[in-house]
Amino acid sequence: MITYDYITKIYYKDIDQMGVVYYSRYFEFFEQARTEMLKGIDLIVTDIEKEGYYLPVVSATADYKEGARFEDKIIIRTMIKKLPQARMKIDYEVYRKTDNRLLVTGHTVHGFIDKDGKPKRPPKFLLDRLSSEFHQ
Amino acid sequence: MITYDYITKIYYKDIDQMGVVYYSRYFEFFEQARTEMLKGIDLIVTDIEKEGYYLPVVSATADYKEGARFEDKIIIRTMIKKLPQARMKIDYEVYRKTDNRLLVTGHTVHGFIDKDGKPKRPPKFLLDRLSSEFHQ
Amino acid sequence: MITYDYITKIYYKDIDQMGVVYYSRYFEFFEQARTEMLKGIDLIVTDIEKEGYYLPVVSATADYKEGARFEDKIIIRTMIKKLPQARMKIDYEVYRKTDNRLLVTGHTVHGFIDKDGKPKRPPKFLLDRLSSEFHQ
Amino acid sequence: MITYDYITKIYYKDIDQMGVVYYSRYFEFFEQARTEMLKGIDLIVTDIEKEGYYLPVVSATADYKEGARFEDKIIIRTMIKKLPQARMKIDYEVYRKTDNRLLVTGHTVHGFIDKDGKPKRPPKFLLDRLSSEFHQ
To answer: Distance (Å, rounded) from C-alpha A41 to C-alpha A25?
Structure first.
């Protein structure tokens, strides 16, 4: 399993009139977190795209237990639990930093396409990189 | 079943560098659509909140088949398929208006809380309103 | 002068914890409004881009008098006050629909570039179209 | 003068189909930057609000020279150039981190209001805190 803890902070832009983070914002945090997780294992998304591979989201889910608030720091634990085949699944757990309380869980599933949107098999360099992390 | 077709349009703000709507934006469209669906049956969210009831999202999912593009009109078919008990589930189907192609499906599940975040049973006026729609 | 009234509505996604629209959201509304204003005079932004012209914002300003609230309808009066030369200026006035109260004013200034970001003169078809509106 | 350098990074959520940051996003970055600048001098916005003071934006401007791109790191130099009287002006300069190139400049002007939206004079603790920074 690959795990990465991404930390970000909540600002006014994220908060709705209930005083908590608006629900769609977590999907932006998920994107930030997975971009950094991949970077942490030398898979730069910009470089993957230069190689002609795009990783669109084909499915996204979030379950909300408690809302983060303005100026909260949150940890987004980002995980790849098994090696991708046609698709890559990434899991997320969002914790409030002060008390480590679990606020949100979720996952995204990513396909692989080329520049014209045609499905592709995941690139070998990506599978190799993930595989070497799994077998450390 | 309650069904409502909400139409909106895609602008630059919604589009990412793949040239399609960024995945989290659909959850904003879902919110717009369900607000109008409820309004269509005389349930104004602002009024519900004035009565002391808030409807936070406790779960949200989207499955992406194809991306909407800049200046596309989309139809968000919004559905309540069964009467809520403790929670209310709303389903969504997003179609491109020009060719009626299904782009995205999804759902949200809503709890009922008071101003301080304490869970409440769904208000009677809301259940009555939904119920009368189901039995038309 | 070219004038266009664009109407939109405020949803939860737009509102911050002060209970009013978050300040950056008005720039999204401005974009929606100017896209529709241009469409109203047969200048489709998608088509302009297909001709190889992009209209990036080079300057943007908003002055906030009063905040719009959840479920408010707002009118965005969108104006081109003089024919563009190297750059095109668009003015905006945002009114609350119920009482016509002026909430926000602002403007954007747009340059013209090609796909590679190189400055271009505004395209003739655009100047001709605007000009014919000014001389009606 | 008070100066604070806030660093953030650009993700897919920020990028439009021109491949650069969508123009309204910089106002979110400005908010993040000023929140951290104030925190850097022990003025926590959450605490200011608990004291009954809100700092709505009354005016916002940005001038765009060049667009930041996906995975760029940017520095937002955030400045208070003179002590606020009725209103507080904050200036911003956005630099790309790799080459220190100036991408965007801007400013926001903030009023002071109470919870009901009534204008107030800036709180003494805030003026004192800013003043002591100016006279260091």
So the answer is: 25
Put simply, whether D70 touches B (Cβ < 8 Å) is yes
B129 part of a folded domain: no
pLDDT reading at D136 higher than 90: no
Is residue C114 a contact partner of residue C120, using CB atoms and an 8 Å limit? yes
Task: Report the residue from B13, B46, B70 with minimal CB separation from C71.
Answer: B46
Q: For B3-58, write each residue's pLDDT tens digit.
A: 999 999 999 999 999 999 999 999 999 999 999 999 999 999 999 999 999 999 99
Question: Is D27 within 8 Å of C23 when comparing Cβ atoms?
Answer: yes
CB-based contact (8 Å) between A18 and chain B?
yes
* Cα-based angle D113, D114, D120 (whole degrees, multiple of 5): 50
Q: What is the span of the domain harbouring residue A78?
A: 2-134
Do the beta carbons of residue B24 and residue C43 sit within 8 Å? no
pLDDT score, position C58: 98
CATH of the domain at C80: 3.10.129.10
**Hey, which chains touch C, using 3+ CB pairs under 8 Å?**
A, B, D
CB spacing of B63 vs A58 below 8 angstroms: yes
A73-80/D102-110 β-pairing: unpaired
Identity at B107, one-letter amino acid code: H
**pLDDT tens digit sequence for A48-83:** 999 999 999 999 999 999 999 999 999 999 999 999
Say whether C61 and D61 touch across the interface (CB within 8 A). yes
| pTM higher than 0.95 | yes
ipTM of the complex: 0.96
Please check whether residue D109 is in contact with residue D59, taking contact to mean a CB–CB distance below 8 angstroms. Answer: yes
Sign, CA dihedral A33-A34-A37-A39, equals negative
Amino acid identity of residue C8, one-letter, is: T
Residue C26 lies in a domain: yes
B28 shares contact with chain C (CB less than 8 Å): yes
pLDDT tens across D16-43, in order? 999 999 999 999 999 999 999 999 999 9
Residue C125: phi and psi, rounded to 5, are: -60, -30
Determine the pLDDT at residue D11. Answer: 98
User: What is residue D113's DSSP assignment?
Assistant: B
Closest-approach residue (CA) in chain B for D20: B17
Confidence grade of residue A135 (pLDDT, cut at 50, 70, 90): confident
Whether residue B134 lies inside any domain: the answer is no
Q: Which residue in the set C11, C28, C46 is minimally distant from B32, CB to CB?
A: C11
CA A47 distance to own-chain centroid: 17
> Rounded to whole angstroms, what are the CA distances from D93 to B16, D27, D61, D96?
25, 12, 12, 10
Answer whether residue C136 is part of any domain: no
Per-residue pLDDT at C136: 72
Is D135 in CB contact (< 8 Å) with chain B? no
Q: What's the total number of domains in chain D? A: 1
Which amino acid makes up residue D44? Answer: I
Q: CB-CB: which of A28, A44, A45 is closest to D13? A: A28
Comparing CA positions, the residue from D26, D14, D40, D13 lying closest to residue D92 is D26
- Say if the Cβ atoms of A11 and D46 lie within 8 Å: no
Q: Which helix (H) or strand (E) holds D13?
A: none
Q: Are C74 and C9 in contact (CB under 8 A)?
A: yes
